[in-house]
Structure formats: structure tokens, C-alpha cells
Specification:
Layout (H helix, E strand, L loop, with lengths): L1 H46 L5 H14 L11 E3 L6 E4 L10 E7 L17 E14 L4 E10 L3 E2 L14
Antiparallel strand pairs: 1-2, 2-3, 3-4, 4-5, 4-6
Helix pairs in contact: 1-2
Length: about 170
């Protein structure tokens, strides 16, 4: 009798351990997919120097090939850049969350400070931040967990006539 109780306890322990390992692997793969989606979006934005119709078309093609589910999300209108006090403003043109991701534009985030205070505005740079969502379904509970994954582009120099107008997107 004593050995059967020990065996059932050991089997329960092994089953719970396997469930936790499978959940960890599912979360890791989901995070990897969301990060891959972010990189695809950022690559298109950097290639076309902004979020414009060309970038949007390429983003749609890449997300379709990656199998990303476009579930509408609520995007806040502004978002602070990580490690900075610069606010990013939500872009329009489908970056409003209806495509399953949010795109923010940041202006002069890394600009040099002036002697009298404030930031230099002679060289205007902008960068983009992308938030996509890692999505996990829990079959037994019927719940969907969405966790944001954030990535950011390098600085892009603002040329006159660029796709992004700084006066339109000031926070």
C-alpha cells in the first residue's frame, strides 16, 4: 500500500512538471514569433524611411507569410520611449491597432541638449517604435493572453518632404 501511494505521487509530480515545461515552451515560441513580427515591421519601415504606403504593403505581405493573427488591439495615443522622457505619438494609416500592432513615431529623442536648456532642433531625427502582441490561448480555461512586445528603429534623418511631418505628430 505504501509503494502505491508513493508511485501515484511521483506520477502526479511528473505530469505537473511536463505541463509546466510545455507551457514554458509555448510561451517562448510565442514570444519569438512576436519578436520576429516586430523585426519584419521595423525592417520595412527602415527600408522605406517611414511608415508609408510602400512600407504598409510590404508589412502586410510579411505578416501574412509569418502567420501573424491580426487581432484588433487598443493602442494608447502616446507612449514613452524606454529609458527616455520622449513621448511617441501613435501613427495613423492602419497603425491604430486594427492590424494587430501599434506604431509610434518619436522626434529628436537623442538630440543633443542646448546650452540654455531644451534640445537642439537644427538636425531633426525621428524613429519608430512598434508594439506587437504575443498571443497565447489556454485551451482548458478558454482564455487568450495578450502580452506586448516592443521594438524600436534606429534614428532616421528627416529630409524636407519626408513621409513623416513633425508638426503633425507633436506630443
Amino acid at each position: 500500500m505504501r509503494e502505491s501511494i508513493g508511485t501515484s505521487f511521483l506520477l502526479n509530480f511528473i505530469v505537473i512538471f511536463i505541463v509546466f515545461i510545455m507551457a514554458f515552451l509555448a510561451a517562448t515560441l510565442s514570444y519569438y514569433k512576436a519578436y520576429k513580427v516586430n523585426n519584419a515591421i521595423l525592417h520595412s519601415i527602415e527600408q522605406f524611411e517611414g511608415y508609408n504606403s510602400f512600407a504598409k504593403e510590404e508589412i502586410d505581405d510579411r505578416l501574412e507569410s509569418l502567420g501573424y493573427q491580426k487581432i484588433p488591439v487598443d493602442c494608447p495615443k502616446t507612449r514613452f520611449a524606454k529609458g527616455s522622457d520622449v513621448k511617441g505619438v501613435l501613427m495613423g494609416n492602419g497603425g491604430d491597432g486594427s492590424e494587430g500592432y501599434c506604431i509610434y513615431v518619436y522626434f529628436n529623442e537623442n538630440a543633443k541638449p542646448k546650452a540654455g536648456g531644451g534640445k537642439s532642433t537644427t538636425d531633426i531625427y525621428y524613429s519608430f517604435g512598434v508594439v506587437s502582441y504575443m498571443r497565447m490561448e489556454i485551451p482548458i480555461l478558454g482564455k487568450v493572453i495578450k502580452m506586448p512586445v516592443y521594438s524600436k528603429t534606429y534614428n532616421i534623418y528627416y529630409f524636407t518632404g519626408s513621409a513623416v511631418d513633425p508638426s503633425k505628430y507633436q506630443a
